[in-house]
Design brief:
The protein contains 21 helices and no strands. It has helices at about 10-30, 45-50, 55-80, 85-100, 110-125, 155-170, 175-200, 205-215, 220-225, 230-245, 250-260, 270-280, 300-330, 335, 350-365, 370-395, 395-400, 400-415, 425-435, 440-450, 465-485. The two termini are about 35 Å apart.
């Protein structure tokens, strides 16, 4: 029988402050969120009337967002304080903060409507890798942003099978489809939070610290829970696979991580961890503790073990890929779709520098202006590859999971496309494995704070009036946070509990 969850006083205050913020954010989303174009989402709530008060909704949403962010930051101090919450206590806080967002329309992105349209295309037998949702038409097309209506999907068959199931069940009922896709994302989040503490322990990191940074941070709540992004499924499978690898269940790890990369391709980097750990296990002397996936005979040489681990991992990954692709019936167009066109207005580092270069070349009358953005995107990809190789070169010092987190962060930051939730690719492994008192943890947490305000609740570019309303809402939260916390003396911050990360 489970014992009652004890919440320290400071943790309880953070729970209440964050819950108030989450409720305000969800309420503001009823007027300013990524609502369906057609008024199909609970008409009884009068959403048509609420949409006429979008500025009020933005004030409410950003008031709530500021409270939520303040609660998360203060909770981080509590985790390192003299009376820290347990991992179970943090999960209770996460559930409280997430609950209001689960019951409301999506926020900060309209991608969930694209997922539904792509799932409907799979159900209808259309090729999602050669055509966009416009090829199907129907009521879902109106919900997809115009920029993506003619764009083939970049997602793998594992995710498309889930989207097709939800879309087939919901049919033309958009609200039901939205909540169905959110249920899929929540399943990914549940898998993530179930495995993250165990992975952190294997890496010598305090599970509570890993949960605070990797699961309770605002990007998870805003974009995986509320926005229902498929990155939740990818990350849940990836962390589950790494946890299985840490437990020497290499076949299971390979299959889970392969499924993750059949949602989104960057997860394939996790297979490098499996190969490395598997070959190390194969090189163990005969007297070492046995593993169910290892032979019981004498150890292999380094070369033989590496080739064997690589062959086993590649074989299992290929078999899983073939099976999922066959079941989904989408074919192998997803390989070609990895080069799906990227919005020219994307605000990734390489695209931004490319636009600046293009404008300068156009002003100078150069014929090279049209090549500026593609050239800088290739430079970004080369830089990401170099950063990845550098991280793996230092894997013995960093540890495999930490190296993976840094590699995925480089791919997200230097790749041709960037969205706030892409940072989670690397953030979650970093939360599980980064040195307890290192600068990377602090900078990652600060990056989370900065990225919470880069996308508006509607998913569209804001006007000047909307920016003013957002700022006003955030400023209104300042005195509330001050009054809520002014009568408490922050406990001294201690180093994260746990040993230094293990370089396994």
């Amino acid at each position: 029988m489970l014992s009652p969850i004890r919440l320290p006083d400071e943790t309880r205050r953070c729970l209440v402050l964050g819950l108030a913020g989450s409720i305000a954010l969800a309420g503001g989303g009823l007027a300013a969120g990524a609502l369906p174009v057609r008024d199909t989402l609970a008409p009884a709530l009068g959403l048509s009337d609420l949409r006429q008060h979008q500025s009020v909704g933005l004030v409410c949403a950003y008031f709530g967002l500021a409270l939520l962010v303040a609660a998360w930051w203060r909770l981080g101090r509590a985790v390192r304080g003299g009376d820290p919450p347990s991992p179970r206590g943090l999960l209770l806080v996460l559930a409280a903060w997430a609950l209001p967002l689960v019951a409301m329309p999506p926020l900060f992105s309209r991608d969930v409507y694209s997922y539904l349209a792509q799932g409907a295309m799979v159900t209808a037998g259309l090729d999602v890798y050669t055509a966009g949702p416009s090829a199907m038409g129907g009521p879902l097309l109106a919900e997809v942003p115009a920029i993506w209506q003619h764009t083939p999907t970049p997602y793998g068959p594992a995710f498309l099978s889930l989207a097709a199931g939800v879309s087939g069940f919901a049919s033309t009922d958009v609200p039901l489809g939205v909540f169905g896709m959110r249920a899929v994302a929540l399943a990914g989040v549940v898998l993530l939070i179930g495995c993250l503490p165990r992975l952190a322990r294997a890496c010598g990191v305090d599970p509570a610290a890993a949960l605070w940074l990797g699961a309770l941070n605002p990007l998870v709540l805003l974009h995986l829970v509320s926005g229902a992004h498929n990155d939740a499924v990818m990350l849940g499978l990836l962390i589950a696979g790494l946890t299985a690898a840490a437990a020497r269940r290499f076949a299971v790890a390979t299959i889970l991580i392969t499924l993750a990369c059949l949602v989104k391709a960057p997860a394939a980097l996790g297979l490098v961890v499996v190969v490395w750990l598997w070959q190390r296990a194969l090189r163990q002397p005969a007297g070492a503790p046995p593993s169910p996936v290892e032979p019981s005979g004498p150890a292999f040489s380094r070369r033989t073990a590496t080739l064997r681990a690589l062959a086993l991992t590649a074989g299992l990954a290929a078999a899983a890929t073939a099976l999922v692709t066959a079941v989904t019936g989408t074919g192998y167009g997803w390989v070609r779709s990895l080069t799906t066109p990227i919005s020219t207005h994307n605000w990734s580092l390489s695209s931004t520098v490319g636009r600046i270069t293009r404008n300068l070349l156009e002003a100078a009358g150069s014929d090279l202006a049209a090549s500026a953005i593609p050239a800088w995107r290739w430079i970004g990809l080369v830089a990401a590859a170099a950063a990845t190789l550098l991280a793996w070169h230092h894997r013995r010092r960093l540890g495999l999971v930490y190296a993976l987190g840094l590699s995925l962060t480089a791919v997200a930051l230097l790749g041709p496309a960037l969205r706030p939730w892409y940072l989670l690719w690397g953030l979650v492994p970093i939360a599980a494995a980064a040195p307890p008192n290192g600068r990377v943890r602090r900078w990652t947490a600060l990056a989370c704070l900065a990225l919470t305000v880069t996308v508006f609740p509607s998913g569209f570019t804001p006007s000047a009036d909307e920016l003013a309303a957002a700022v006003a809402g955030a400023l209104l939260a300042v005195p509330v946070v001050f009054l809520f916390t002014s009568d408490t003396v922050p406990a001294p911050v201690h180093p994260y509990r746990g040993t230094e990360p293990a370089a396994w």
